[in-house]
């Protein structure tokens, strides 16, 4: 490039720079104002890396749940089930309705080993109606399982495998769980075995009205769920919700979803309820549930105004039942329950959750407000029929048969014109269900011998070395006969 050409190019560059500066100046004077303006001239706040705080207040560079996961993952098992479901009759144009053969249905969920000899807690809805249950451990071992007992009121079931020195999870106190704390959900969603997800506790004592009320089957739902945002999907049911120490604080049971898959919230039965239920099922085969003998409701602003209540916290007592624990302790309609022991209760699920930890005969202290005055009442809790203890032969669980039995009521016997009988109140996977007996069946005779109470059935079936003939009638009057090999 010669000198004249270089000068010419340099001139072009100079003109371009000057034009750009001129354009910027014009824009500053006539352009639009910015949409956001600073309102002060203070220096920006100092920036920090955001870490998490571990239990005990020790700062961490990042969340690390590896120890909690390692402690819990081997104690959470994969539960698979097989059930026989009777299909609805099919209509044929020429032959009318025709019965179809039973259909085999497979299901899957999770469970938590709570004893090294093979007791496993899971959800009732995971094993309900199952003819065959298998448990798959994280180390690929596989066992057949039997149902020890079920509790539809809390959606908890206890099953058993024949194992030794199995990995277990320890129960933590779910009353100590705080909203906002970190938790892990461990289970087998969508058959993805041994899956761990993390989240926080979003709420406590949540009632989502998922459990069905059925007084005829002694089902009185207790919903006091721990709500979390840990991802839970179908297959997680019965799995563990653990704290950062790897201890059990709940059994994952349900999700809130419009799609059937996880959309943000999951719910777990608190470990204190689980502990009580599994202990009862292990020891008695059924849950010994305690009652205060009150009808209750949450308190809102309108109720407080209508009834002249001075505060919104607590649970309002609408009425106290005759001969119930509350009436015997001096409680009245219009009382407001604020505490059970040292635990504050602010709504019905919280109160139900606290009472569900106790058994008939237990004494508890209840703090109540009446017309603005606070007092403490001592209640001796009772069972549903008003007794302090439940040890009669009127009801009996027989895990070996997979059945709960009860003496048929006088009203049932009169309606069916029976002199005596024993009612099958609840069935799980077991011998009675396998031969076709269904819930509600009243056993009248075994090998021609009349049955008066559940102990008679236990004795009759336990003393035979061969097959027996079971006679009885269903609530609709239909008589039935079943052969059982014992």
Description:
By secondary structure, this protein is of the alpha+beta class. It folds into three domains: 62-287, Thrombin, subunit H (Beta Barrel); 294-380, Pdz3 Domain; 395-485, Pdz3 Domain, CATH 2.30.42. It is built from ten helices and 29 strands. Strands 23, 24, 25, 26, 27, 28 and 29 form a seven-stranded antiparallel β-sheet that branches. Strand 6 and strand 7 (119-123) form a beta hairpin. The protein is globular, with a radius of gyration of 32 Å.
Shape: globular
Report the major sheet. 7 strands, antiparallel
Secondary-structure arrangement, i.e. CATH architecture of the largest domain = Beta Barrel
* CATH topology group of the largest domain: Thrombin, subunit H
Continuous helix count = 10
Helix content: 10-25%
End-to-end Cα distance, whole Å, is 111 Å
Contiguous runs where pLDDT drops below 50 for at least 5 residues: 20-61
Tally the structural domains.
Answer: 3
How many individual β-strands?
29
Query: What is the radius of gyration?
Result: 32 Å
Class inferred from helices and paired strands: alpha+beta
Name the beta content range: 25-35%
Mean pLDDT across residues: 83
What is the name of the CATH class of the largest domain? Mainly Beta
Secondary-structure topology with pairs:
Layout: H1 3-30, E1 52-53, E2 59-60, H2 66-73, E3 76-85, E4 90-92, E5 96-98, E6 103-113, E7 119-123, H3 124-127, E8 132-136, E9 142-151, E10 156-160, E11 182-187, E12 195-206, E13 225-228, E14 240-242, E15 248-256, E16 265-270, H4 271-284, E17 294-298, H5 301-306, E18 315-320, H6 325-328, E19 336-340, E20 343-344, H7 348-355, E21 363-370, E22 373-380, E23 395-398, E24 403-407, H8 410-416, E25 422-427, H9 431-434, E26 442-446, E27 449-450, H10 454-462, E28 467-473, E29 479-485
Antiparallel strand pairs: 1-2, 3-6, 3-8, 4-5, 6-7, 7-10, 8-9, 9-10, 11-12, 11-14, 12-13, 13-16, 14-15, 15-16, 17-18, 18-19, 19-20, 19-21, 21-22, 23-24, 24-25, 25-26, 26-27, 26-28, 28-29
């Amino acid at each position: 490039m010669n000198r004249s050409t270089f000068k010419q190019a340099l001139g072009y560059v100079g003109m371009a720079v000057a034009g750009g500066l001129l354009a910027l100046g014009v824009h500053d004077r006539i352009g639009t104002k910015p949409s956001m303006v600073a309102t002060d001239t203070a220096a920006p706040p100092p920036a920090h890396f955001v870490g998490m705080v571990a239990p005990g207040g020790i700062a961490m560079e990042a969340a690390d749940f590896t120890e909690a996961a390692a402690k819990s993952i081997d104690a959470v098992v994969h539960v698979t089930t097989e059930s026989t479901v009777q299909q609805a009759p099919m209509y044929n144009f020429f032959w009318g309705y025709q019965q179809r053969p039973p259909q085999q249905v497979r299901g899957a969920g999770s469970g938590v080993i709570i004893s090294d000899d093979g007791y496993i807690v899971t959800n009732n809805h995971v094993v309900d109606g199952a003819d065959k249950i298998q448990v798959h451990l994280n180390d690929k071992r596989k066992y057949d399982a039997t149902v020890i007992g079920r509790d539809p009121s809390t959606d908890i079931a206890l099953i058993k495998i024949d194992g030794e020195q199995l990995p277990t999870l320890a129960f933590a106190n779910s009353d100590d769980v705080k909203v906002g704390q970190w938790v892990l959900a461990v289970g087998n969603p969508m058959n993805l075995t041994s899956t761990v997800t993390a989240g926080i506790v979003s709420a406590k004592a949540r009632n989502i009205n998922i459990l069905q009320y059925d007084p005829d089957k002694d089902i009185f739902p207790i919903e006091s769920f721990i709500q979390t945002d840990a991802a839970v999907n179908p297959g997680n049911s019965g799995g563990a919700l653990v704290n950062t120490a790897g201890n059990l604080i709940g059994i994952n049971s349900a999700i809130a979803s419009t799609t059937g898959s996880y959309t943000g919230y999951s719910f777990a039965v608190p470990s204190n309820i689980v502990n009580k239920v599994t202990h009862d099922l292990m020891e008695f085969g059924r849950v010994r549930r305690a009652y205060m003998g009150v009808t209750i409701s949450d308190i809102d602003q309108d109720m407080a105004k209508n009834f002249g209540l001075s505060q919104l916290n607590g649970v309002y007592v609408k009425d106290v039942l005759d001969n119930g624990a509350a009436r015997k302790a001096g409680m009245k309609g219009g009382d407001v329950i604020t505490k059970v022991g040292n635990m504050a209760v602010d709504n019905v699920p919280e109160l139900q959750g606290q009472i569900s930890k106790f058994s008939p005969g237990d004494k508890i202290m209840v703090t109540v407000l009446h017309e603005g005055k606070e007092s403490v009442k001592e209640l001796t809790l009772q069972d549903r029929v008003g007794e302090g203890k439940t040890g009669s032969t009127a009801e009996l669980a027989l895990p070996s048969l997979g059945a709960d039995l009860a003496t048929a009521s006088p009203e049932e016997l009169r309606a069916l014109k029976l002199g005596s009988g024993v009612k099958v109140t609840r069935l799980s996977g077991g011998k009675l269900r396998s031969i076709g007996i269904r819930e509600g069946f009243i056993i009248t005779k075994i090998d021609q011998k009349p049955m008066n109470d559940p102990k008679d059935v236990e004795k009759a079936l336990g003393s035979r070395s061969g097959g027996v003939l079971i006679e009885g009638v269903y609530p609709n009057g239909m008589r039935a006969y079943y052969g059982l090999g014992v």
